[in-house]
Amino acid sequence: MPIETIYGNLQGLKSNQLKQLQRLYHQRVPGDRLTTSEFAQRVASISTEVGQPVCVYINRRGQIIRVGIGTPRQTQIPPLELPRYGAGRLSGIRCIATNLKAEVPSEGTLTAMVIQRLDALVMLTLTGEGFKRRGGGATGYIKQTYLAHLLPIPTHERENTDLQELNFWSVSPPLSLDMLAKQDFIDLVDGLEAEFEREFIAQEVDSDQDLVLLVGLKIDKMTNQQFEDGLAELARLVDTAGGQVLKTVHQKRSHPHPQTVVGEGKVQEIALSVQTVGANLVVFDRDLSPAQVRNLETKIGVRVVDRTEVILDIFAQRAQSRAGKLQVELAQLEYTIPRLTGRGEAMSRLGGGIGTRGPGETKLETERRAINARISRLQKEVNQLQAHRSRLRQHRQRQEVPTVAIVGYTNAGKSTLLNTLTNSEVYAADKLFATLDPITRRLTVPDAITNKPTTIVITDTVGFIHELPPTLMDAFRATLEEVTDADALLHVVDLSHPAWQSQIRSVMTILAEMPETPGPALVAFNKIDEVDGDTLRFANEEYPMAVFISAAQGLGLETLRQRLAQLIDYVIAS
User: Fold this and answer.
1) By Cβ atoms counted within 10 A, which residue in 10, 82, 111, 166 is the most buried?
2) Residues 6 or more apart in contact with residue 461 via CB below 8 angstroms
3) How many CA atoms lie within 13 A of 283 on its CB side?
4) Cα–Cα distance between 484 and 477 in angstroms, integer?
5) What is the mean pLDDT of the chain?
6) What is the mean predicted confidence (pLDDT) over 57-68?
7) Strand ranges (DSSP E) for 189-330?
8) What's the sign of the alpha-carbon dihedral 100, 106, 108, 111?
9) Pick from 150, 175, 202: which residue ends a domain?
10) Strand pairing partners for 449?
11) Cβ atoms of 321 and 437 closer than 8 Å
């Protein structure tokens, strides 16, 4: 952009007024002063002439780096364009703003100061027509001034006080322009940054870990329980992905805001909360469009991701086999391709540098073409993987070995059950999506009629989750075919989870959406050692044909083997 760009609403400005605003870029302010009387009066004069507030942003060298028409909130520098100095530093930028009304800085103005971490905010309240000489002509336009700056928030207040009650800023009483111009800017900033640095050291944490702010939106068709369960699950997903949840923000709306999901005021609250708790990542509890991500990142100033991206990240960490990594990469690329738009201005430019300028593809088009080519290659490899798994299943069928696929919500205890039943050492952990690649083992069960030992093949599959992302459903079709091609299913349910009924419905919905109808299922309620008698009785009444087990404690496993044998016998007979 040209150096003399004027930001904000320029509608109705005359050409000479625009030139006056642009000439402000050629001014310099002494580095040790907030402003000078002459510069402040010049800004006030222009503001009075155009009849609108004017904001001028100055760096610590005294250079004018941004001029805008409007309030500090309307002309603020997007957080992603601000210098990155860390939590112990201010941005190195101060704002000189005019106010056509004789009033203290508004909360919106002060919030903009916090979001930008400005060194200081100077508010010039104007007289309207200027002070008059006897012979006519204005001598000045400034009635009084206010000086505002940020305040460090002690850790104990940060953790134990509501956001609305925290004191983010200090605003001076009304000051004369002469008094303001004499303020020592360097002393002010050095003192503030020393306080911020002390507070930052006191609360410093592992910088390699994502520090997360969760955002939940409750729309009218959701019950309170559904909303709370969804947020709790999102927190578990973030924890599994290696993040630390610092704070949760939520809002109730009839429907999501088309540009930012939540309302404008809530976006400002999120931006404030990010500054307050030191978050470097914001996670929403629903899928976001590329435009929504772009809008939110511009307003909040840190990376914004949705639930699907968190799940994809977990899958990428969990993938061990070549097949698993292949399917995860395919899912990530299919998720990324529509989101390439707006990843920054550089993505829309032609290639830069000697020998690369001129007509041709933009960087964005080049990236998209490369990703599409990679997706095409991966899809071919996934098809080959499908064919390979199909041959393995056909071999088992020729051997006439019955197959059972273990399905269920993520973290229901499927891998633990497989280990206990088959004396295996499959990786099992109290985390979501601990298992990604299907794992097959042989299991001996008593024949339903003769009671003689019979061998079946049992496969542990990837866990399901509420609203499983379509990109994962498509990429993991080779894995999910283990479910549809099995003779029967063992549906494991975590009975100790408060939302176990909702989890059953989610699993049944995903099974119903599969291209081929899976075989009959036996429901096994797991973790019965962690629930009370009322829950057991209720589950037994609702699912009288279910089996009740504890994979970790080895309870009910003999009954489970017998019921599996009966189920296999039924499938073979039919």
Assistant:
1) 111
2) 405, 406, 407, 414, 435, 438, 479, 480, 482, 483
3) 30
4) 10
5) 83
6) 95
7) 211-218, 244-252, 281-284, 303-305
8) positive
9) 202
10) none
11) yes
Q: Looking at residues 65-74, what average pLDDT do you find?
A: 93
What is the token pair recorded at 136?
């006519």
Q: How is residue 31 annotated by DSSP? A: T
Q: How many CB atoms lie within 10 A of CB 282?
A: 23
Distance of alpha carbon 535 from alpha carbon 548, whole angstroms: 12
Question: Measured between alpha carbons, how far is 401 from 441 in angstroms, rounded to an integer?
Answer: 12
Name residue 50's amino acid: V
Which one, of 516, 378, 492, lies nearest residue 435 by Cα? 492
Q: When comparing pLDDT for 289 and 425, which is higher?
A: 289
Q: How far apart are the first and last CA of the chain?
A: 73
Q: Which residue has the tokens 């112990």?
A: 88
- Do 85 and 162 belong to one domain? yes
- Inside any domain, residue 375: no
d(CA 286, CA 306): 6
Q: Tell me the sheet residues that pair with 537.
A: none
- CA 231/CA 220 separation, integer angstroms: 16
> Does residue 219 sit in the same domain as residue 197?
no
Sign of CA dihedral 417, 423, 424, 427: positive
Separation CA 45–CA 61 (nearest Å): 24
% of the chain residues with pLDDT over 70: 83
Range with the poorest average pLDDT among 86-100, 264-278, 357-371, 543-557? 357-371
Q: What are the pLDDT digits (tens) for 469-510?
A: 777 776 666 567 778 778 899 999 999 999 899 999 999 988
Instruction: List the structure tokens of 316.
Output: 């990428």
Q: Which range, of 81-95, 267-281, 338-352, averages the lowest pLDDT?
A: 338-352
- Are residue 296 and residue 423 in the same domain, yes or no? no
Which residues, in sequence order, are bridge partners of residue 17? none
Q: How far apart are CA 525 and CA 536, in angstroms?
A: 9
d(CA 134, CA 534) in angstroms, rounded, equals 90
Of 288, 221, 218, 225, the C-alpha closest to 252 is 218
Looking at residue 512, its amino acid is A
Last residue of a domain, one of 176, 202, 228: 202
Q: What is the CATH number for 248? A: 3.40.50.11060
Q: Report DSSP state, residue 4.
A: T
Residues 196 and 299 placed together within one structural domain of the fold: no
Q: Is residue 509 included in any domain, yes or no? A: yes
Query: Tokens 């002690």 label which residue?
Result: 154
Domain that holds residue 198: 6-202
Which of 226, 283, 225 shows the shortest CA–CA distance to 249? 283
Which two three-digit tokens encode residue 73? 């909130």
- Smallest CA-to-CA distance from 113 within 143, 137, 147 is with 147
Asked if residue 50 lies in contact with residue 38, where contact means CB atoms within 8 angstroms, the answer is no
- For tokens 């001028």, what's the residue? 56
Of the two residues 110 and 369, the one the predictor is more confident about is 110
Strands, DSSP E only, in 364-438?
403-408
Give the separation between CA 96 and CA 56, rounded to whole angstroms. 5
